[in-house]
Amino acid sequence: MHLTLEHVLVLGAVLFCIGLYGAITKRNAIAVLMSIEIMLNAVNITMVGFSYFDTVKLYSQHLTGQIFAIFIITVAAAEAAVALAMVIAIYRKRATVDVGEIDMMKW
Amino acid sequence: MLYQLSWTILFAPLLAFAVIIFGTRVWDLRSRPKVALPAAEHGHGEHHTDDHDTHAVTDEHGHGGHSEQDEDDDPHVPQLSAGAKASAYAALVIMALACIYSWVLLFSTVLHPADLAAAGKEVFAYNWLSVGGLNYIVGFHLDRLGIAMMVVVTTITFLVQFYSQGYMENSAGYARFYAYLSLFAFSMLVIVFAENFLVIFCGWELVGLSSYLLIGFWINKRAKPEEQRPSPASANLQAFIMNRIGDVGFILGIMILFVNTGSFDFIAVQHGVVHMDKTLLGIAMILVFCGAMGKSAQFPLHTWLPSAMEGPTPVSALIHAATMVAAGVYMIARTSPLFATAAPFAWEVVASIGAFTAFFAATIALVQSDFKRVLAFSTISQLGYMFVGLGVAGPEYGVGPGMFHLFTHAFFKALLFLGAGSVLHGLHHAMHKEVQDVRLMGGLASKMPITAATWLIAVLAISGFPGFSGFYSKEEIIGLALEQGHPVIYALTLATAGLTAFYMLRAFILAFGGKGGKFMGLWGGPYRGYGEVKESPLYMTIPLMLLVIPSVLAGYWTGFYQYVNVSAENVANLSIPALFQATDTWIGVIVSLVGLGFAWFLYGRVDLVKINQVVQSNAALRTIHRILFNRYYVDDLYNWIVKYVVLGLAALAQAFDRYIVDGIVNGVASGVTGTGSGIRRLETGRVQSYMIGFFGGVAVLAVVFVVLITTVWK
Fold first, then answer.
1. Are the beta carbons of B160 and B319 closer than 8 angstroms?
2. How near does any CA of chain B get to the CA of A59, in Å?
3. For B123-160, how does the pLDDT look when each residue is reduced to its tens digit (9 = 90+)?
4. Are B421 and B159 in contact (CB under 8 A)?
5. Are B9 and B154 in contact (CB under 8 A)?
6. CB–CB of B232/B218 below 8 Å?
7. Disruptive mutation site among B677, B683, B687 for chain A (greatest number of A CBs within 10 Å)
8. Which of the residues A33, A87, A101, A107 would you substitute to probe the B interface, choosing the one with the greatest number of B C-beta atoms within 10 Å?
9. Pairing with B615, which of B108, B444, B479, B481 sits 20 to 30 Å away (CA)?
């Protein structure tokens, strides 16, 4: 049984859904961040999968998905740093990392 | 040249007004010592709403030493400053010159009728505005009707101003008073000289303004409900508003005429209305007459005139004789060619309202106890005569009869009012308070002989006693009513003549005579007041004596009929011999004599207390007395209408504004606010719920696109 594009896409979709579920349901801000990372990596897998199984075989397009994935990894690293800094700042201010209680942005 | 320069008469009082207001009055005010009122006196000073006059040292103690009773009065100064006196002299000199000039005009037009064309002459024209082919001209013209009126206005104003030197002695508002009198004369002269409806309307409103200022001159005085007297400040408002009601009709009438003839000019309108619908013209003229009803205090709009008695008495004389109420009669005389062109009902309305008012006011005057109010109602009644005179004369007799009565009435009514002012002035000095009730007078004839003698002559003149001026003008109108076929109007005016004689002699005997006096109660008698009454100073008695002359002699100038209305054919019939030969003249005389005799027998022979007892003990008499004393409750009716109808409508309008208009505006606002405060609950601030919304939206869009792709866009 060969590895096909469908396998990769299903893996990406499943991972994305797991991440989404985690991001929506988890109360802990750290866990939410982790879930977001899973969602980003699910997208990375999809990108790389599209790139690997590209049927047009143009060299310039061959790498587009790969480069996207690299960019996303970079941005995700920056995002993780900022998000963790924010979580720490909020924890210092309010002594909690429960996202249900972090609702300062309403009204 | 003599006629061309007559516009100087018009502007002379305006000049006097300007000189006083900008010159001598400023001088007067600046020369007053600026004394801060001590705190204790401030309660007294708080009514001084005219801030300029509060600079006056309120001379409570110098004025007879009865400050507690004089506190209602206008503020006084210990003595008049040079500026105040200069104001009076400026007004007097200028008015004397205008007066002499107008008499010269009168004599020269009488002696050389050919010099001034019958249609008159334009003496001043200023093109105020030219819009779309229409010229609005501030134009003044001079004709015989105007000259006759001008003589009355300038003469009466001059005498009133002369008289006021005595009456307004030491008033803090002395200079202001003269300024207003001059403005009043100017306003009236604008009406007299007016060449078109626009100018006459301006003068009309100016007269309203001046009367407003003068009726409310004693701004500090309060209402006296026990004497049914309003405060001057409300009386002048009443006069102003009543006149506005009439003016609505006037301006509507002018508009109808303007729309149909395309001009405001009297002569152009006169030529234009020939092609107009007679009924519409009649309605327009009745609307114009509404304005005259307001100014001349005819029946539905008459209540302001008795209230206007709250003004200083010289002002009452001016209003009643020359400047205010005469304006209505003059305006109807001025527009009489239009009335003559209109359907006959226009003149009939004028005559009927005049006759009814004459009778109506005369019955009220029968029982009034306020000295000035009797005179006020007699004025209303006599104005009714003038409108009857205008209304019944028709084109054959023209405006002569009505205007002649205006002419003679001006002199004897001025005399009556100035005499009344002399009495009130004397009583004020004797009793140190304002007394106008005839029940507190009596026996003044022996104390004030000049006033009493001149007043008696005026009483005889207004009663139509043969030989006095009122006889000629009034009997002419009464006779004309019969001759022109108006039996009801004739009956009403004839009855009014008797009533007039009765109430005028009643007022005379109550004030000046009384039971126990000489000549069986006609002269002197017991004085019912207190204090020592003295004859007024010469400043006041000289105008009285001067006014006696025209009060007697004015009636002999029957050339007046021809003078004011050259085109009337039948005026030759209106001569003195013809008057003496007519039977109805003598019927009128008999009725007047009956009235005089009845008053004399009742009030000269019987004690006032006894008369009151008889009236009060008889139920019917008591009821009639009460109705008449309360002036048929017309004032109360108006108060009721204002209180319940006008204020009710105002409350409805206010409720509409508050609940409906404001309700819509506030409802929209609160709807938006409510929606917003409901919707803001969606903003929880929780990131995860936003995330659900975001990804839920994406999912929905995804499903939609999948469905679209697989079905529609395939």
1. no
2. 30
3. 888 888 888 778 788 889 888 888 999 999 999 999 99
4. no
5. yes
6. yes
7. B687
8. A107
9. B444
Crossing angle of helices B174-193 and B144-167, rounded to 10°: 170
Return the pLDDT at B43. Answer: 44
Residues 24-43 in A contacting B (C-alpha not used; CB under 8 Å): 24-25, 32
- Cβ separation A102–B687 shorter than 8 A: yes
Tokens at B629, concatenated: 């004393």
Enumerate domains of chain A plus CATH numbers: 5-94 (1.10.287.3510)
On whether any CB of chain B is under 8 Å from the CB of A23, the answer is: yes
Contact: A24, B695; criterion CB under 8 Å: yes
Task: Quote the pLDDT of residue B363.
Answer: 92
Q: Pick from A20, A102, A107: which is nearest to B695 by CB?
A: A20
Cβ within 8 Å, pair B686-A23: no
Q: Are B622 and B616 in contact (CB under 8 A)?
A: yes
Cβ-count burial of B275 within 10 angstroms (0-12 exposed, 13-18 middle, 19+ buried)?
A: exposed
Q: Which residues of A touch B686 (CB under 8 A)?
A: 99-100, 102-103, 106
CB contact under 8 A, A103 and B695: no
Tell me whether 0.85 is exceeded by the ipTM. Answer: no
Q: Give the pLDDT of residue B289.
A: 92
Would you call A18 an interface residue with chain B, using a CB distance cutoff of 8 Å?
no
Find all residues with CB under 8 Å of B494, minimum gap 6, and list them: B478, B587, B588, B591
Tens of pLDDT, residue by residue over B494-503, are: 999 999 999 9
What does the alpha-carbon distance between residue B28 and residue B679 come to, in Å, rounded to a whole number? 73
Say how many CB pairs under 8 Å bridge A and B: 30
**Reported confidence tier of residue B55, pLDDT bands at 50, 70, 90:** very low
- Residue spans of the domains in chain B: they are 1-221+312-333, 354-627, 630-662
CA dihedral B179, B182, B183, B186 (to 10 degrees): -160
